[in-house]
Amino acid sequence: MSDLSNYRKSYEKSELLETNIPEDPMNLFHRWFYETEDLGVEGEVNAMTVSTIGLDGFPKSRVVLLKKFNEEGFIFYTNYNSEKGKAIANNPNVCLSFFWHSMERQVIIKGIAEKTPETVSDNYFDSRPDGSKLGAVVSPQSEVIPSRTYLEENLKTLEKEYQNRAIPRPKSWGGYLVRPVSVEFWQGRPNRLHDRIRYTLLDNFDWKIERLSP
Fold it and tell me: Which one is catalytic: 31, 62, 192, 211?
């Protein structure tokens, strides 16, 4: 058995106070995201954990890449027939989380996922490299397959089929927009007395701001 009880770190890089935060959580997320990006240490600032409630009743988390965020929420892309896609179709309540180790910060978002309009999915798919497009076409995401060779052989077939041809977006592949209902910002502080500020949506415009005990 591995004993990790001595793994400790003192968090001392910043603070999160009610006196220096905006009324809207998306503005604070924007600030934190680009502060982390500007630091230039995190490999993929847009990497986030998406948690869903599966058809088997168990929660499941996986890392995906955030592709856009605005005042409406957070957008990522996936196969709608994947395990996460089926889970979202059954229960659109999801959780997104970001952990930026370099900044000693975490953001946890509870929200409701909905498919993006087809034009949005089409535009993003068209912007991808051909290899990524073919990967989306060839992969029956989350399904059991016989081998790695099965994928590679199917990919070779598709490469020949679509040589010098446009690759259409599969109807089973597209975006999700997660509209937040709760956004919690966590800033590491010394002695485990971390700052936690939670924004809770009251209606379509107003947010309640609360400090949580660490």
Answer: 192
CA of 129: how far to CAs of 62, 133, 138, 157, 170, in Å?
Answer: 23, 6, 14, 18, 15
Please state, for a pLDDT cut of 70, what percent of the chain lies above it: 99
Beta bridge partners of 97: 49, 108
Tokens 């986030």 correspond to: 48
> Which pLDDT value is given to residue 31?
98
HEC assignment per residue over 150-196: HHHHHHHHHHHHCCCCCCCCCCCEEEEEEEEEEEEEEECCHHHCCEE
In the predicted structure, residue 164 carries a pLDDT above the cut 90: no
Cα separation of 185 and 100, whole Å?
11
Verify whether residue 192 is a known catalytic residue.
yes
